[in-house]
Amino acid sequence: MTGDTQSWRRAAPASPVTLDDVARRAGVSLATASRALGEHPHVAAATRARVREAAEALDYVASPEAARLAGGPTGRVAVLVPHPSRWFFGELIEGLEAALRAADLDLVLFRVGGPEERAAFFDRLPARRKVDAVVVLAVAVDDAEHARLASLGVDVVVAGGRVAPYPSVGIDDHGAGRQAMDHLLHLGHRRIGLIAVDDDARASAWRTALADAGIEPEDELATTVAWGGEGGAEGMARLLGLRTPPTAVFAHDDETALGAIRTLRRAGLRVPEDLSVIGVDDHPLAALTDLTTVAQPVREQGRRAGELVAAALRGDLQEPLAEVLPTRLVLRGTTSPPGAPR
After folding, report:
1. pLDDT tens sequence across 28-47
2. Do residue 183 and residue 275 come from a single domain?
3. DSSP letters along 15-81, please?
């Protein structure tokens, strides 16, 4: 009796092999393994063969859920965007759409600017699974939302920032901030104000650049405002209200910088003779208004994200990667040494 029991225990089957096991053995994502076994047309032949070999080696039997995930391709990519009307996001979408169109994929836009819109997307899309991939445009994803995205069984790519653990395309925001700050410091400015939109990498660059130059960052010189021109105008008014205003201002972005310049001109101050201003982006209005800025390749970020999606659907994207595109200082007419003559 005892021997029979021990024999039975030795012969007991192991835990069922899952699609996750196959994906790990083949060295691909769960979504790629699902598509490879489901005859998805965008999967590369070599990847499909590798996944099939892994499935055979593990004696994998597809479950109903795996079969659902491996259903036919939709040819659609969901794009999560918080503010589609803003220039930055519009540029990202332009580049993304062009790359997806070249890969025979359609873009489906989901606005997730507010809590209700975000909840609607993350609650409903997993049950429907009407897309082959998801692109997140500069949106932070919390743990619950990450779990929802994982439940889709599709590839996720991020553009305009970085959200772990997904492949992403963006810029070094801290580096861009340092380019702006180092320019002002090289001109001789020591009392430099900050108009921030958030306590982000660009705001951090303001502090570290001052500290590296041996200047103690003063809290009164940093103000946080709502994004855009009106926020920039308000932030500049606060800085002008200081007993000793700054001689230069680093604004989070060009639109915020232009709002700051409006306040300066209404106050009868000259730019850059009385106060220098620099932004980030190289918004089309920056060239028209002669704004000194740090340019970032926004449309290129969208295009590269679209190419990453196409590569992921073919099974050619083996590991998550963070691609960082370069920024560059664009010298125009809103910065000069402090107290420069007209």
Report:
1. 877 777 777 766 666 788 88
2. yes
3. PPP-HHHHHHHHTS-HHHHHHHHTT-TTS-HHHHHHHHHHHHHTT----HHHHHHTSPP--EEEEEE
